[in-house]
Design a protein that fits this description.
mainly alpha, Clc chloride channel, 2 domains
Length: 442
């Protein structure tokens, strides 16, 4: 008996190092889930405050939105440097940053707090942004910080912590554990290392369980019974795959162009006057919002859900105007993601395509449009299919969704050959390299 007990306690899985390692991932996953839930509550509050404000005084938006965009960008640059953008490119870039100091510049608790605060302020001002992309950076920052506090060796753990934190962030933000796993494989790591797969999986699952325990087993866009006969599916699949994929690629191409800097005088003026440019983006967004009947502000969550469930009537141009609003919000330089707005754009485009295909169920075309456009933007087809299936609680469209995603991927690459997040991450890494001091020549 004593020999068996001795052998049991010598089991490698019970060593102090392994226990500390697993505790780090599990406790970090719970912390990420709690931060994601806090962020979700703050985002809903921000959207609500803006809706109340413009309902009573619709033209106040021409003052509030430009002024808020300028103030948020100023705070981002002066107080919360590293919190700009969606957050996913920073998390991807952090996987390649060699030095701890440079990695902490985008994965610190200061950046995580700034991301939540500034994104919420953006929603209070009507920006067309989401919280899901920022939650990836927040999750990665929390995991990375906990790793430093627990003095875990960076070698072999740094990348695993970032990937697990980002995946846990997606899992908790959308309440979709499977999508978090797929996102980690397809977008964050692009590979699945054997030595870190188990801990990453458990972190995602723990984050999902923590989110469900507090918020319940809800679906992000509710439930839909939309179905599509395979014999007639080819028409909406081709239309959504090609049309939405091309528009998604065009959207990404525009964001990449602005991130690299426009040529000639416009680029020089934006570089010299970033605060004024942010205010200008806010002013144009306010005008676009007036034209849309105030439907293109915020995350687009309510609008997309209303279209899927058939309970909301929106302008026919909603999809295109929401696309323009998201571009304006992103190029202004304020923090905020594009996940939720992109899904709303796809839903709006799906409605437009459904009107061109009489006899095809509109609910099915809307879901195909969401997958097609989202794939066109991020060029991650598996993530797009899984995330939409989990968010709508619908598995009957899996084959048409997969076909739409693959066609959209090809169409998007015709317009934007380089994936959006990878390209933005590469640009960020180039900036990091330029900031590093050059060795002196003897």
């Amino acid at each position: 008996m004593s020999r068996q007990l001795s052998r049991f306690f010598r089991y490698p899985g019970l060593s102090l190092r392994v226990i500390r390692h697993r505790f780090l991932f599990w406790s970090g996953a719970v912390t990420v889930a709690l931060a994601a839930m806090l962020f979700a509550k703050a985002s809903v509050l921000g959207n609500g405050l803006f809706s109340i404000l413009i309902k009573g005084h619709p033209f106040f938006v021409f003052v509030i939105t430009p002024a808020a965009f300028a103030c948020i960008l100023w705070l981002t640059r002066r107080v919360f440097a590293g919190a700009e953008g969606s957050g996913i490119p920073q998390a991807v870039a952090a996987l390649e940053i060699p030095t701890l100091a440079e990695r902490r510049a985008v994965l610190s608790m200061r950046v995580a707090v700034g991301k939540i605060l500034l994104t919420t302020l953006g929603l209070c001002a009507g920006a067309s942004i989401g919280r899901e992309g920022p939650t990836v950076q927040i999750g990665a920052a929390i995991m990375h910080t906990l790793g430093r506090w627990m003095r875990m060796p960076v070698q072999g753990n740094g990348q695993a912590l970032i990937i697990a934190g980002g995946a846990a962030g997606i899992s908790a933000a959308f309440n979709t554990p499977l999508a978090g796993i797929v996102f980690a494989i397809e977008e964050l790591s692009r590979s699945f290392e054997e030595r870190s797969s188990g801990t990453m999986l458990t972190a995602v699952i723990v984050a999902g369980i923590a989110s469900m325990a507090v918020l319940g087993n809800y679906t992000y866009f509710g439930h839909t019974d939309a179905a599509l006969d395979l014999a007639e599916a080819w028409r909406p699949v081709l239309a959504c795959g090609i049309g939405c994929g091309l528009l998604g690629g065009l959207f990404s191409r525009v964001l990449i162009a602005f991130s690299r800097g426009l040529p000639s005088r416009p680029g020089a003026w934006i570089g010299a006057h970033p605060i004024a440019f942010a205010a200008l983006c806010g002013l144009v967004l306010a005008a676009l919002g007036q034209c849309s009947g105030s439907t293109i502000y915020g995350t687009g969550y309510d609008e997309a859900r209303g279209l899927i469930e058939g309970t909301k009537a929106l302008p026919a141009s909603f999809g295109l105007m929401k696309l323009g609003a998201t571009i304006l919000s992103y190029i202004s330089g304020i923090p905020g993601g594009i996940f939720a707005p992109s899904l709303a754009v796809g839903a709006g485009l799906g409605v437009n395509i459904a009107h061109l295909l009489p006899g095809v169920p509109m609910g099915s075309v809307i879901i195909l449009g969401m997958v097609g456009y989202f794939t066109g933007v991020v060029q991650a087809p598996i993530t797009a299919v899984v995330i939409v299936m989990e968010m709508t609680d619908n598995q009957t469209l899996v084959i048409p969704l997969m076909a739409t995603a693959l066609i959209a991927l090809g169409a998007s690459r015709l317009v934007c050959p380089s994936p959006l997040y990878r390209t933005l991450a590469k640009s960020y890494l180039e900036k990091v390299v330029r900031r590093q001091p050059r060795p002196e020549i003897p």
